[in-house]
Write a structure and sequence with these properties.
alpha/beta; UDP-galactose 4-epimerase, domain 1; seven-stranded parallel sheet; Rossmann fold; single chain; 317 residues; binds nicotinamide-adenine-dinucleotide
């Protein structure tokens, strides 16, 4: 890959992908497109490529790029605050960004890997398999279903075009702090624990999530491009872990012994369990998750990003 474009490259997962691409393809010409609405330039320290600060849902692609096209397109740019209730903004910005991008790439059928989400499955508990009925419970999830529908429509019109979607599960890791409230549970609980406070989780901490480390997500995303296939795949750890286990894991890496402080969940229905069925991903993309929760948290801590920019007190032993 000599010319690679990445949307959302100033964001959490996008910037990890960009830095990995820069390492794997040092001679490649990389262009990041991001309007920085939720990302940060601070995530791109050391980036040597080009940066286009533009809202992709309104960008005139032909005017901007004048017929130039990449060899590979990674599309991660998206509104990522799932609590943003404005249905029109969520749907317009997320879907139109993808529509414009696909229309621009159509003449050369540039291979595309795009970020979908486990949120497309809705709030039903249990193992999530590609092929299960989708039940988006918020406008964000609805917009991701629309991305998948659009990709399918384009593939129907251009059967040789490779467009791969990945349903990312609960991702955590370096370069997520800029997200604020939508950052991962690992990030938020670590912040409380670094202040010497007991980590606050819903009673009784036995809810489970498919927490997946960002290095695995980057590896899945690259594998989807290299596989040269069309479709949708899960991208998780395949190992649901409880909130209590997350606290235990953080105590392990931060050197603390803080017990959870439980409080009642305010939501009438709260999803008790998410779990990615990874069998199709392993079979088709030839890749498996490498990081357990404990290994991911240890790597996160070692990177320095778990504690970077935090107000902290000496952890309570
Ligand atoms: N983090 C997770 O756990 C998770 C889970 C499921 C899916 N995803 C998906 O992965 C992708 C990356 O998410 P993230 O966690 O890195 O979030 P993020 O908010 O850090 O990154 C998203 C980036 O997209 C940019 N962006 C948003 N709308 C844009 C637009 N219209 N034009 C240009 N840039 C725009 C933002 O500025 C930001 O830098 C997203 O598509 C998200 O929906 C993430």
């Amino acid at each position: 890959m000599k010319k690679i474009w990445i949307t959302g490259g100033a964001g959490f997962i996008g910037s990890n992908l960009v830095m990995q691409l820069q390492e794997e393809y040092p001679l490649a010409d990389l262009t990041v497109m991001d309007d920085l609405r939720s990302g940060s330039f601070l995530n791109l320290e050391g980036f040597r490529g080009d940066f286009v600060a533009a809202d992709l849902s309104r960008l005139d692609w032909e005017g901007q790029f004048k017929g130039e096209r990449p060899e590979a397109m990674f599309h991660l740019g998206s509104i990522t605050d799932t609590t943003l209730q404005d249905q029109k903004i969520q749907t317009h910005d997320n879907v139109e960004s993808f529509r414009r991008l696909l229309e621009y790439l159509r003449p050369e059928k540039t291979p595309v890997v795009y970020a979908s989400s486990a949120a497309t499955y809705g709030i039903r508990a249990g193992v999530n398999r590609v092929g299960d009925p989708l039940a988006p419970a918020n406008a964000y999830a609805f917009s991701k279903v629309q991305l998948e529908n659009l990709a399918k429509k384009m593939q129907g019109e251009e059967p040789s075009w490779k467009i791969a979607g990945l349903r990312y599960f609960n991702v955590y890791g370096p370069r997520e702090g800029h997200k604020g409230v939508p950052a991962s549970m690992a990030w938020h609980l670590a912040g409380q624990m670094l202040m010497g406070k007991r980590p606050r989780v819903f009673t009784a901490g036995e809810q489970k999530r498919d927490f997946v480390y960002v290095k695995d997500i980057v590896a899945f995303t690259l594998a989807a491009m290299k596989a040269g296939k069309s479709g949708v795949w899960n991208a998780g750890s395949g190992q649901p872990r409880s909130f209590n286990e997350m606290v235990e894991g953080l105590n392990g890496v931060l050197g603390t012994k803080l017990q959870p402080e439980y409080f009642e969940c305010p939501y009438p229905f709260y999803q008790p369990h998410t779990e990615a069925d990874m069998s199709a991903t392993e079979r088709d993309l030839k890749i498996k998750p490498k990081f357990s929760l404990e290994q991911g948290l240890a790597d996160y801590e070692k990177s320095g990003w778990l504690t970077r920019g935090r107000v902290s007190v000496k952890p309570t032993k």
